[in-house]
UniProtKB/TrEMBL annotation:
Residues 423-457 form a coiled coil. Belongs to the UDP-glycosyltransferase family. This is Glycosyltransferase. PANTHER family: GLYCOSYLTRANSFERASE (PTHR48047). CDD domains: GT1_Gtf-like (cd03784). Keywords: Coiled coil, Glycosyltransferase, Transferase. Its EC number is 2.4.1.-.
Amino acid sequence: MVSETNSVHIFFFPFVGGGHQIPMIDTARAFASHGAKSTIITTLSNSLLFHNSISRDHQHSNLPITILTFPENPQISDTDMSAAPTTDTSALHQPLRRLLLELRPDAIVVDMFHRWAADVIDELRIPRIVFNGTGCFSRCVRVNLQRYAPHENVGSDSEPFVVPDLPDPIELTRSRLPSFARNPSRDFDRMRKSEETSFGTVINSFYDLEPAYADYLRNVLKKKSWLVGPVSLCNTKTEDKTERGKNPTIDERSCLNWLNSKEPNSVLYISFGSLARLPQEQLKEIAYALEACDYSFIWVIGKIFKSSKHKETEEEETNWFLPDGFEQRMKESNKGLIIRGWAPQLLILEHSSIGGFMTHCGWNSTLEGVSSGVPMMTWPLSAEQFSNEKLISRVLRVGVEVGSEEWASWDEERRVLVGREKVEEAVKKMMGKSEEREEMRRRIREIAVKARRAVEEGGTSYGDIDALIKELQAPRIT
Ligand code: UDP
């Protein structure tokens, strides 16, 4: 740990919303635990989502971490965690400028979705470190897709191609590529350029998870980066795990009691993250598959996508469109626990009864699955999730692909559903007894051990945090 004398002051400026805000808060906490004075700058309404854990760090653990709130702004106050990549936060331009001028931090870690922020930070000559919420593998895939455009040389959206020049032969199809990889928008180019001109990138990953891609990123693509994760592992207290991101819609005790009533490795955990909306017909397919299999499950149902022909109303949002009597049957047989809204994901994943994780391959969920040693059933939907799927299933070989083929934006209605037969087959493969499953489990447990080692003293992520702090300290010492 870096000594507290001469400690650096780092601003952390998270994006307003689940998948990006959660790991940035954990990152700030990790840096504070290494002695850096960490200030999280955010709106008041967002700060309510994590102020308890920050107070605990500050008051009970005496860590140098605080939250500084901007004046409330109706344009960007978002408490339901649904802020999307497209949310425009530029109303924070002047407030940010004022804070930077007033407090002159040694550096700022800024989420790449604050697309406008680079100009003001660079103008004030404050080292700008980008946080983009993804891992090394998907970043290498993205850069090489852009460099070589292999998707332009195939005859159809479903014809596979190999992403050139990567350490492994990674196959994708055009239908699995994000729209921003097919046709980069102005916003996307802006984010890419601001990353290129930054001081570097902090990455929520660890070296032993994707060593070939961490090396490729640093040595071949020449990206200055610090691998500081898995940052979720800074949540060691049960309260922090329970309240992470949002207050759960199930109380911790009943969730744990339910899990305690199950055999080790016997429960499938299903969640599609904080943003994804599945069509109601897709929920039905999942429900039929779960009913046809003999395995217990926890299913977190977030928002659904009602047909675009209907305007979504509050009432429709809370209507859940499961098959008739499904929920009742699951409850009576104690086979399934359905959580509507927000689940205490870390707490669940770390429970010994969890034997598989059906995930949309959001990067945080992927890392949380890995760190908990739980094999995954991959069901990518949006963002860079189709790349993450390949890392899980082909590079690490700790997951089974469910068969999702179509990338769609989080707010777009998807046309292609995954049928119940495919879901059932994948669930049986993941949860049934087989040599293949045992191998997967063994592999992911080994990686989970390495994840914990990475953040401990002497570990690679621990070392990268210290290295970045030292680098920021250097100009003060000379
Ligand atoms: N999460 C949670 N409970 C939920 C849904 C999500 O705690 O019910 C957390 C999850 O643990 C993860 C984050 O929200 O840390 C979701 O991030 P991810 O990158 O997996 O997906 P995104 O929400 O960005 O699509």
